[in-house]
Amino acid sequence: QVQPVESGGGLVQPGGSLRLSCAASGIFFNVRSMAWYRQAPGNKRELVARISREGATDYADSVKGRFTISRDIVERTVYLQMDSLKPEDTAVYYCNGDRGATMYWGQGTQVTVSS
Could you tell me which of 26, 27, 73, 97 has the fewest CB atoms within 10 Å of its CB? Predict the structure, then answer.
């Protein structure tokens, strides 16, 4: 399984939380970083959070302090904990593996923040 597989999306009220999971057993040890991107209707796909092979993390300014990216090396899974969700976080969230010349993308999982 080379393609990452996302799960955990859904509908949540503003201020709520969700945790996304990305199963990446086929690529986990072969990429220099894993990341979460999102794309809202009419918008370009944007980087949300990234974790490097060494464990360093970085975040988009819009999610700093609210989202946390982490990984489980044994399970070869990457997570995105999303707290204090806002309606503007509504988007399809994609897991990504960066191998330099090759990028691996999942199919995406929908996150909708609405009351």
Answer: 73
d(CA 103, CA 94): 12
Contacts of 56 (CB under 8 A, 6+ apart): none
DSSP string, 25-58: TTTTTT-SEEEEEEE-TTS--EEEEEEETT--EE
| % of residues, the chain, pLDDT over 90 | 85
Give me the mean pLDDT over the 42-63 stretch: 97
Please tell me the distance from the alpha carbon of residue 64 to that of residue 98, in angstroms, as a whole number. Answer: 22
- The residue behind tokens 């490097």 is 52
CA 109-112-113 angle, 5° bins: 145
Dihedral sign computed on CA atoms, order 109, 57, 14, 20: positive
User: Rounded distance, CA 71 to CA 44, Å?
Assistant: 26
Distances from the Cα of 53 to the Cα of 2, 24, 88, angstroms: 17, 13, 29
